[in-house]
Amino acid sequence: MSAPWPVKEGALKNKIMDGDQQKQVKTRMHLPPKLNFQLINDEARSLKAGDLSQQESKNLAQTNMKVTTDKFSSERTAMESQQQRQTVTASGFYNQEKHSSSTSHIYTSSSSKGLSTSAKINATRQFHLLNGTPEEAILNTSLEDLESLSATSDVHDIERAKHKYSTYLDESIRCLQKLDQNKDAPLVLDKINDVMRKAWAVPTYGHELGYALCNALRNSGGLDLIMQNCTKSDKSLQFASAKLLEQCLTAENRAHVVEHGLDKVVNVACVCTKISNSVDHSRVGTGILEHLFKHSEETCSDVVRLGGLDALLFECRKSDVETLRHCAGALANLSLYGGAENQEAMIKRKVPMWLFPLAFHTDDNIKYYACLAITVLVANPEIEAEVLQSGTLGLVEPFVTTHNPSEFAKSNLAHAHGQSKTWLKNLVPVLSSKREEASNLAAFHFCMEAGIKKQQGNTNMFSEIGAIESLKKVASCPNAVASKYAAQALRLIGEEVPHKLSQQVPLWSVEDVEEWVKQIGFPEVSISFVESRVDGDLLLQLTEENLRDDIGLTNGIKRKRFTRELQQLKKMADYTSRDTSNINNFLQSMGLEFSIYTYSFLNAGLDKKDYLRNISEDQLLSECGISNSIHRLRIMEGIRQLENGLANGMNEDNQDKSLDVFVSYRRSNGSQLASLLKVHLQLRGFSVFIDVERLEAGKFDNNLLQSIQKAKHFLLVLTPNALERCIGDIERKDWVHREICAALSANCNIIPSSTTSSSLNSNSCRKI
């Protein structure tokens, strides 16, 4: 290589060493500021003129060359033989030649926020010189430094990663704009997608790092390019773009998509869900829809109109866990962001029924967000009745009572970084829902979020969205589950936990009653309760006359409001301190609203079920104070059924049976298929019972037996080894065995459904 200026012959002289000294020579060259260059070789020659240096080196064994600045670091190690010449200027490598038989190369780049534009250009130029063409440089870039980041990483390391990969994304998008339809474009998009995934996966800092790179992608024009690719005919380019899009739909990027190309993005998401037998396409399509449902009520309406909700519901029948996680998350987001109009659209499309197999799934994340969706829907009184018909709400309580919020937060990256401020703000009203299931799960989620936000140093968000007062109200309410989680959330964010009210209302003190009266919005009469020394026992016996004459609630409307709150309290109260025979359970079997009579029964001396058989309707009116004649009739009917037991049910003909189908399944591996069958049957108008409890071995619930005897059809789900435990089970301890025997005794139409049948759902429905 010749120098770019005239060089006098002999200017470069060999360094001649004696035999003893020739083993190794270290030559340190004085280069421009902040640029250090060190060679360890057997032969080296150098020339320095002004701000330009030229060097030449040869070795036959090993050469190590490292170039370091505060912008980047490049290291090459060559084994066997190597010869190289380089010319270096203040702006970087001007020219370079090398010949080697074996080389390894490591390149890293780092910077702080204050780098100048020229420094970025120099770093980019050096990057390409060392790595070949722009495409090769992008595709060959190592992500080891990104993968090595952890929760204990220094904040400067995070900032350096932000800068390095923001520059990397900028270069990648410029490269893609030049490549257009080039075959390398999908590969470059996949590489960017890999960067985004690894950024989001960084513990603690993943949220911050991911957001920074998403902003860089949008600012570089990458988001617009990806949306354009969604309409291209090249399927590999289209799918690579959709994959990347699914990874970068942050709040700002969602807004950009909604403004500049929502129809394109929804269309490509729906196209992905229609690709049969492609798990990857299903995951990407449902993932995009999950993000889009987190924008606004208007956007939710547009996505539903463009077919997004229909595509999601179709995917709910799939078995891939990640796809179903996206489906559950998307339906939860639509419930929260969609508003009343879109919730009505969800009811019309039978979403509560489709949520059942998701909430019944063995994967906790699928189960959780399906439960969250159903609780948000049931909190809307206008659609509460339709939601209750699906039976999905019954799956909420088992989840919140068997999981720990802090452990669940770590179980999946999807919620490991927590939800956004807007998402949480939309969940706040659910805390105050009259439905215990809704309040319980909302409190569970805020407890989980409190731990995440505390770790992120962002606990102020809870006061900004108005959640503190709601959490305090729930923390002091007699709902045992919700109050526990709300109190934990308040402690995590450093707020004072209010006075806790026990669920055992009969044991309340006067102070407890005073606190409850204030909580329900009647502070003006709380002093009257204190003066009258009203405790929990007296509170449950108050009549309207007591409220008017003794407490001073002369306003009739206010008395009705107070009575409504008191009845709600009676429904959630725990009577076990006095109810040793489970009279409350007997009344609840006719409907939750019958719990308001439990304390009246106990005070009247009806604390044993044996006493019920001799009770008359007049006594229900005079002794128990049940003025509602319809309720009296239903209670009398319930008592007669309790007397007769199950004897009459065994002899009923099919036309007298009230239940269409009982679904029997092996709990270990048949739950998903059984729940899907339930949905398909309900969509066709059949009434279906499916047991949602995990019964212990040897335990058989009488409610199951009653349901089987009432059923016309017994649908037996035959998953692998479903009947294995029935073999040799002479004592009938296995519940599937007992269910089958009960179905035979009740003359049910038994329909076996095997997983080997490709048309399982339609065949089963036709037989019924």
Can you give me a brief rundown of this structure?
This protein has 768 residues and is α/β, with parallel strands linked by helices. It is 53% helix and 12% strand. It is found in: Cytoplasm.
Summarize the SSE layout with pairings:
Blueprint: E1 25-29, E2 36-41, E3 43-49, E4 52-59, E5 62-68, E6 72-89, E7 92-109, H1 117-131, H2 134-140, H3 144-147, H4 155-179, H5 185-200, H6 206-219, H7 222-229, H8 235-247, H9 251-273, H10 279-292, H11 297-305, H12 308-315, H13 321-337, H14 339-348, H15 351-359, H16 364-378, H17 384-389, H18 396-400, H19 405-409, H20 413-416, H21 421-431, H22 436-456, H23 461-464, H24 467-475, H25 480-492, H26 510-519, H27 526-531, H28 536-539, H29 544-551, H30 556-572, H31 583-588, H32 598-603, H33 609-612, H34 617-622, H35 629-644, E8 659-664, H36 671-683, E9 688-690, H37 702-710, E10 711-718, H38 735-745, E11 749-754, H39 760-767
Parallel strand pairs: 8-9, 8-10, 10-11
Antiparallel strand pairs: 1-2, 2-5, 3-4, 4-6, 5-6, 6-7
Helix pairs in contact: 1-2, 4-5, 4-6, 5-6, 5-8, 7-8, 7-9, 8-10, 9-10, 9-12, 10-13, 11-14, 12-13, 13-14, 13-16, 15-16, 15-36, 16-22, 21-22, 21-24, 22-25, 24-25, 36-39, 37-38
